[in-house]
Each structure stands twice: as structure tokens, then as C-alpha cells.
């Protein structure tokens, strides 16, 4: 007859129980962007309030002129494949988040907290999707050109220019996020 000690037997039983309770497939991160198809009104309102406060404070600064028009593209989001859409929005969110975390006046620092948390979560969700669904995706020519333009702007434009561009175009970024979440034709 087989005699097992209490500790190894307990470990065996717990291991088998946990293995059945949490199958390996369930532990893999899944891609679900459906929660971004319709962004909650409170999130949109928080972004709008932050943008209004930012615009009212920035109008007096003249060094925010930009040579690059990052958010003015000759192509539409609908022309991109779904993985390209996700990559585009992830890059736009990277820029917006990088600009929002810069030091700011106390009032703006408070106002940006909710939008910053929302945008950060969206970016992490997009990264999870790219990692699970298209880990080796190479951007199309249109997107690759825009990503290069973005990298060049980060090197040549002032921080103020990048900050203004990113914050002023947040609703466009949110629209692009919704389009990426649709996974079908964008309007």
C-alpha cells in the first residue's frame, strides 16, 4: 500500500484542485476593446473639462507654435487595417499620456487625473491586444510614415507644442479609440 505524508498529499490535492479551477487557457490575457466602443459620458466630460481648463491657461503662451501638424493626416482611420488602427491609437495615447504627466499647475494636475487614468488604462488594453492578436504586425506604409513623423516631431518640436497638440486633439484620439474597438469598418 502507498503511504504519503500529510504535506505532500495536501500539496497534491491543492495542485490538482487549482489546476482544474484555473485552466491554462484562462490565464492567458485576452483582447477585448469592446468597452471603448461607447465611452462613458463621465469620461468624456472629464476630458472636456480638462481641455477647457488647459486651453484657458495656454492662450497666453506664444512659444507653442508647431512646425508639424501631427493630427492632420491625408488618410482616414477607416483606410487602416485593425492592427494598424490599434497601433495608431496606442502611439497617440503614448504621446497624450507623456504630455499629461509633465509637471503642471495644481488645478490642472487635479483635473487631469481622471482622464489620465482612463487614457492609461486604454493604452494598456491596446498593448494587450497587440501582444495577443498581432505580436509581429508591421505597420502599413501610411502608418509607418506617420509614426516616423511623430518620432521626428518628438525630437524637433518644443514640449509646449507637443503638449498643446496632444491635448487639443484628445477627442480625435478618443474617436480613433472607438474606431479601433469596432474591429470593422469605421464611419
UniProtKB/TrEMBL annotation:
<keyword id="KW-0964">Secreted</keyword>
<keyword id="KW-0202">Cytokine</keyword>
<keyword id="KW-0051">Antiviral defense</keyword>
<dbReference type="GO" id="GO:0007259">
    <property type="term" value="P:cell surface receptor signaling pathway via JAK-STAT"/>
</dbReference>
<protein>
    <submittedName>
        <fullName>IFNL3 protein</fullName>
    </submittedName>
</protein>
<dbReference type="Pfam" id="PF15177">
    <property type="entry name" value="IL28A"/>
</dbReference>
<dbReference type="GO" id="GO:0051607">
    <property type="term" value="P:defense response to virus"/>
</dbReference>
<dbReference type="GO" id="GO:0050778">
    <property type="term" value="P:positive regulation of immune response"/>
</dbReference>
<feature type="signal peptide">
    <location>
        <begin position="1"/>
        <end position="21"/>
    </location>
</feature>
<dbReference type="GO" id="GO:0005125">
    <property type="term" value="F:cytokine activity"/>
</dbReference>
<dbReference type="GO" id="GO:0005615">
    <property type="term" value="C:extracellular space"/>
</dbReference>
<comment type="similarity">
    <text>Belongs to the lambda interferon family.</text>
</comment>
<keyword id="KW-0732">Signal</keyword>
<dbReference type="InterPro" id="IPR038326">
    <property type="entry name" value="IFN-lambda_sf"/>
</dbReference>
<dbReference type="InterPro" id="IPR029177">
    <property type="entry name" value="INF_lambda"/>
</dbReference>
<dbReference type="GO" id="GO:0045087">
    <property type="term" value="P:innate immune response"/>
</dbReference>
Amino acid at each position: 500500500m502507498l503511504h504519503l505524508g500529510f504535506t505532500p498529499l495536501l500539496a497534491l490535492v491543492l495542485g490538482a484542485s487549482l489546476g482544474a479551477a484555473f485552466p491554462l487557457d484562462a490565464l492567458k490575457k485576452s483582447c477585448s476593446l469592446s468597452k471603448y466602443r461607447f465611452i462613458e459620458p463621465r469620461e468624456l466630460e472629464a476630458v472636456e473639462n480638462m481641455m477647457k481648463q488647459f486651453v484657458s491657461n495656454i492662450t497666453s503662451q506664444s512659444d507653442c507654435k508647431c512646425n508639424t501638424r501631427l493630427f492632420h493626416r491625408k488618410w482616414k482611420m477607416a483606410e487602416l487595417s485593425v492592427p494598424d488602427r490599434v497601433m495608431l491609437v496606442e502611439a497617440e495615447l503614448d504621446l497624450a499620456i507623456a504630455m499629461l504627466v509633465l509637471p503642471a499647475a495644481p488645478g490642472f494636475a487635479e483635473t487631469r487625473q481622471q482622464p489620465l487614468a482612463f487614457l492609461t488604462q486604454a493604452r494598456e488594453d491596446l498593448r494587450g491586444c497587440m501582444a495577443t492578436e498581432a505580436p509581429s504586425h508591421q505597420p502599413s506604409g501610411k502608418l509607418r510614415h506617420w509614426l516616423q513623423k511623430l518620432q521626428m516631431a518628438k525630437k524637433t518640436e518644443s514640449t509646449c507644442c507637443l503638449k498643446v497638440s496632444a491635448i487639443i486633439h484628445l477627442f480625435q484620439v478618443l474617436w480613433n479609440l472607438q474606431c479601433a474597438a469596432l474591429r470593422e469598418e469605421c464611419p
